[in-house]
Amino acid sequence: MTAQGLFISFEGIDGAGKSTHVEALAERVRGTGRTVVLTREPGGTPLAEKLRSLALHEAMDPLTEALLMFAARRDHLQQVIEPALARGDAVLCDRFTDATFAYQGGGRGFDWQTLSTLERMVQSLPSVSEASGVKLRQPDLTLWFDLPPSTAAERLAGARLPDRFESQPITFFEAVRAGYERRMSEDPSRFARVDANQSREQVWQAVCQSVHSRGWI
Ligand SMILES: Nc1ncnc2c1ncn2[C@@H]1O[C@H](COP(=O)(O)OP(=O)(O)O)[C@@H](O)[C@H]1O
Ligand SMILES: Cc1cn([C@H]2C[C@H](O)[C@@H](COP(=O)(O)OP(=O)(O)O)O2)c(=O)[nH]c1=O
């Protein structure tokens, strides 16, 4: 019997504090004896990293942007995520599909239903039987680092050079945050909302608590 893989995604607006905790959580999960694959979206494969650099730096219309995100995801799923889960590894991913719904859907106002159609095309798993219907690859847990956009902007000021998304106004990030909220309401049990408006140590405790309560660390 193969061990079951574990898939955890990290989400939130830019500057919410996700990246600060990814490596530490990876270390905790490694401590349970699992191999950890630490990755990110858009990106995670040579092709997807090229698509990332286009999506983050070139001007384009919202449909092109959404298609690039899903094209990068498709390659990432096929080359990295699915093989890792099949081996029984833990995949820790800095952003996944919820970011597309939040940024392209919420932030850009791109059609939610079209994103759902693309999600089904890109993330469907081979069905075990016809009766079992189409299953989609989704994270086992999504840690949503929730922070008011004004606080995130303060944290990011001077921290790094802004890309096409990070240079957006606060109203854009309010809409992204609402996108995450909507996405969580559609599948609440998959999400743990982490109050990111606390000290690093308190946020870390909340992250550990969410993963520990599921028996994974
Ligand atoms: N709890 C916190 N309190 C204050 N600053 C923080 C906190 N967590 C992270 N930061 C800082 O905020 C900035 C953005 O954090 P980062 O982890 O890069 O965010 P993200 O990956 O979500 O964009 C970094 O400079 C980081 O050091
Ligand atoms: C995965 C994904 C990311 N994004 C955006 C969110 C971020 O602003 C940007 C890159 O994400 P991120 O890796 O968090 O940026 P950084 O390395 O600067 O912390 O891409 C989308 O718009 N849609 C998506 O589907």
Automatic annotation (TrEMBL):
Residues involved in ATP binding: G12, I13, D14, G15, A16, G17, K18, S19
PANTHER family assigned: THYMIDYLATE KINASE, UMP-CMP KINASE 2, MITOCHONDRIAL
Family: Belongs to the thymidylate kinase family.
GO molecular function term, any single one: dTMP kinase activity
Pfam families, A to Z: Thymidylate_kin
NCBIfam families: DTMP_kinase
Organism: Ottowia thiooxydans
Alphabetized UniProt keyword annotations: ATP-binding, Kinase, Nucleotide biosynthesis, Nucleotide-binding, Transferase
Descriptive protein name: Thymidylate kinase
EC number(s) given by UniProt: 2.7.4.9
Record's keyword annotation contains Nucleus: no
Catalytic activity: dTMP + ATP = dTDP + ADP
Function: Phosphorylation of dTMP to form dTDP in both de novo and salvage pathways of dTTP synthesis.
Gene name of the record: tmk
Keyword Nucleotide-binding tagged: yes
Enzyme class label: transferase
CDD domains registered for this protein in UniProt: TMPK
Domain Thymidylate kinase-like span(s) in chain numbering: 10-205
